[in-house]
From TrEMBL:
GO terms, molecular function: transmembrane transporter activity
Bias kind Low complexity: ranges: 12-25
Annotated family: Belongs to the purine-cytosine permease (2.A.39) family.
Taxonomic source organism: Helcobacillus massiliensis
Residues passing through the membrane, by range: 50-69, 75-100, 139-158, 164-186, 193-212, 224-244, 264-287, 307-340, 352-374, 380-400, 421-440, 477-498
Membrane topology: Multi-pass membrane protein
Designated name of the protein: Purine-cytosine permease-like protein
C-alpha cells in the first residue's frame, strides 16, 4: 500500500481546492454535492440536528414488528426487552462512531472508507453497502405498499392488483423525489415528520392498549443463552447495523470544531429513542396474541392495522407510509452516493433515480411474487450483515486509531497516502466473512432456499447438525447467528493490531506539518 504524500490533482467537482477561498453555501433546491468534499462555508450543521434524520427514520410503527420477530427466538418478554435495549443502543452507538469520520473528512461514508481499504479497494465493501441500502429501502417500500392494500381492504375500498400497482408507483415516487432534492430538503423533511409521526404513533399505542394481556406476556418462559444471542444479533442487524454504512453521510455537514462525543451521542439518541419504545410495545402485543405474532411475518404494518378501530385506519395508514418513506429516503439518498463512489460518473440526482427504479422493481417482485415477507427479509439481512459487520469493525478500528483528520484530496487519488488497495483490510474482510457465513444459518430453508449454503462450519465445530430429512438445523448454537458478531469483533481486533503502523505512516505527513491534529 502506498504511503507517499498525495500528488497535486484537481479536487472532485464541488470541492474547494486546498488554500482557495471557500465557495458559497449550496442554497439551490436540488443539492449539488455528490461525493465531493463539502466546502467549509457549507459545514454549518449543529450536533443536535443529527437527531432529526435518525429519529424520523426509526420512529416507524414498523419497529413494533420486531417484537414478534424477537419473541420468535423462543425467549421470554423480560429477556426480549433486555436484548432489544442492548441491541438497539449498541448498534446505533456503532453508527455514531462511524459518523465521527464524516465530520473529520467532509465526504460520504463510502469515500471515507477508502482510507482503510484504498481508493480502489473500497469498491469491495462499497458493493456490499450498495446492495444493503437498496435492500433496506426496498423492504421499507414493500411494507408501505402492503400496509396500503390492507388498510384499503379493511375500509371496504378498492383493493387488489390495481391498488398494489398504484401504491408501489406512488410510494417509489415519494422516496425518489425527496432523495433527488438532497441533504437540505431531507433534513427539513425529517424534522417535520418527527413531530407529526411521533404524535400519531403515540395515539396508535394508546388505541391498542386493550389488546395487551399482561398475564400471557409475563407467563412466557425464558429461552436459552443461544436463543438470546440469536435475538440480540437480529435486533442489532435490523436496527443500527442496518444503517451503519450510511452513518457519516449525515455528519459531513457538521462543523470541524464539533466534538466527537457530541456526534456519537446525538446519533445514538436519535436512532435509539423511538425503537426502544416501539419494540417494547411490540413485544407486549406479540406476547399477548400468538395469531397476531404470526401475521406480522407476512404483512407487518397490515397486521398492526387490524388492531385499530375503522376511524383510526386512515391516520394510521398516512403515518405508517410517511415513516416508512422517511427511512427509505435516507437509504436511497445514501445508496446513490455509494453508487457514485463505485466510479459511476453521473450526477447525484441521476444516481438516486437509478436506485429508485431498482427499488420499484424490487417492490413489485416481492409484493406480487414472493410468498412470504419475513423469509427473504431475514435471509437478506443475515447474508449481507456478515460482510457489513466485518467492514464496520475495520472502519471503526481505523477511525479510533487515527490522530489526524483525513487528507481529503488523497481520498480521490490512488497515488496518494491511502494507496490503491489495502490488502490487509481486504483480506481481513474476506476471512471474517467466510468465517461468519459458516456460523450463520438460513432460518427459512424452504422459503429462501437460495441461501441454504451457509452454516458450513457448525458441524465441524460441533455447534450444530443439519437434519436433511426434515430440512432444518439442530443444536443449541445453530440459530444464534454467532457469525455476525464474530465478524464484527474479529475484524475490529485484527485491524487494531495489523493496521496501526500503516495508519501512522499515512498520517506522518499531516502530523509533521502540524495539520489536522486533534487534542
Amino acid at each position: 500500500m502506498s504511503t507517499a504524500a498525495p500528488e497535486p490533482h484537481r479536487p472532485p467537482s464541488g470541492a474547494a481546492p486546498v488554500g482557495a477561498a471557500p465557495v458559497g453555501p449550496d442554497r439551490t433546491l436540488v443539492e449539488r454535492n455528490g461525493i465531493d468534499v463539502i466546502a467549509e462555508s457549507e459545514r454549518t450543521a449543529a450536533p443536535h440536528q443529527l437527531f432529526w434524520p435518525w429519529f424520523a427514520a426509526n420512529v416507524s410503527v414498523f419497529g413494533m414488528s420486531y417484537g414478534a420477530w424477537t419473541l420468535g427466538f423462543g425467549i421470554s418478554f423480560v429477556q426480549a426487552v433486555i436484548v432489544s435495549i442492548i441491541g438497539i443502543v449498541v448498534s446505533f452507538l456503532l453508527c455514531g462512531l462511524i459518523a465521527i469520520a464524516g465530520k473529520r473528512g467532509s465526504v460520504p461514508t463510502m469515500v471515507l472508507s477508502r482510507a482503510a481499504f484504498g481508493v480502489h479497494g473500497q469498491k469491495v465493501p462499497g458493493i456490499v453497502s450498495w446492495l444493503t441500502s437498496i435492500g433496506w429501502e426496498t423492504m421499507l417500500a414493500i411494507s408501505a405498499v402492503l400496509a396500503t392494500a390492507t388498510v384499503f381492504e379493511l375500509l371496504g375500498l378498492a383493493h387488489g392488483t390495481t391498488v398494489l400497482v398504484i401504491a408501489a408507483v406512488a410510494i417509489a415516487a415519494l422516496i425518489v423525489g425527496a432523495s433527488v432534492l438532497g441533504y437540505h430538503t431531507i433534513m427539513r423533511m425529517q424534522s417535520m415528520l418527527t413531530w407529526a409521526t411521533g404524535a400519531f404513533t403515540i395515539l396508535f399505542m394508546i388505541l391498542v392498549i386493550p389488546h395487551i394481556d399482561l398475564g400471557a406476556v409475563m407467563s412466557m418462559e425464558n429461552g436459552t443463552v443461544q436463543q438470546t444471542v440469536g435475538a440480540l444479533v437480529m435486533v442489532m442487524t435490523g436496527f443500527g447495523l442496518g444503517w451503519i454504512n450510511i452513518a457519516a453521510d449525515w455528519s459531513r455537514y457538521q462543523r470541524r470544531s464539533t466534538s466527537d462525543g457530541a456526534i456519537v451521542a446525538w446519533n445514538t439518541i436519535g436512532g435509539s429513542a423511538a425503537p426502544i419504545i416501539l419494540v417494547t410495545f411490540g413485544l407486549l402485543l406479540a406476547g399477548s396474541d400468538a395469531d397476531f405474532a404470526a401475521q406480522v411475518g407476512d404483512d407487518p404494518i397490515g397486521a398492526l392495522a387490524t388492531l385499530l378501530p375503522l376511524w383510526a385506519l386512515i391516520p394510521f395508514w398516512i403515518v405508517a407510509v410517511l415513516t416508512l418513506v422517511s427511512g427509505a429516503v435516507l437509504g436511497i439518498y445514501s445508496s446513490g452516493l455509494t453508487l457514485l463512489s463505485l466510479g459511476v460518473n453521473i450526477p447525484r440526482p441521476a444516481a438516486a433515480a437509478i436506485d429508485g427504479i431498482i427499488l420499484t422493481l424490487g417492490t413489485v417482485w416481492v409484493v406480487f411474487f414472493a410468498q412470504s415477507f419475513i423469509a427473504p427479509f431475514q435471509s437478506f439481512l443475515i447474508t449481507l450483515g456478515v460482510p457489513l459487520a466485518s467492514w464496520a469493525g475495520i472502519l471503526i478500528a481505523d477511525i479510533l486509531s487515527r490522530r489526524a483528520d483525513y487528507d481529503e484530496q488523497a481520498l480521490f487519488d490512488a497515488r496518494g497516502r491511502y494507496g490503491s488497495i489495502d490488502w490487509t483490510s481486504i483480506g481481513t474482510m474476506a476471512v471474517a466473512s467466510l468465517v461468519g457465513w459458516g456460523l450463520v444459518v438460513n432460518s427459512f430453508a424452504g422459503e429462501a432456499s437460495w441461501n441454504n449454503w451457509q452454516g458450513y462450519l457448525l458441524e465441524p465445530l460441533g455447534l450444530g447438525r443439519w437434519n436433511a430429512a426434515d430440512g432444518f438445523w439442530e443444536g443449541d448454537w445453530a440459530y444464534s447467528n454467532l457469525g455476525v458478531l464474530l465478524s464484527l469483533v474479529l475484524s475490529f481486533l485484527v485491524t487494531l493490531v495489523l493496521r496501526r503502523g500503516s495508519i501512522r505512516r499515512q498520517e506522518e505527513g499531516a502530523l509533521g506539518r502540524g495539520e489536522g491534529r486533534r487534542g
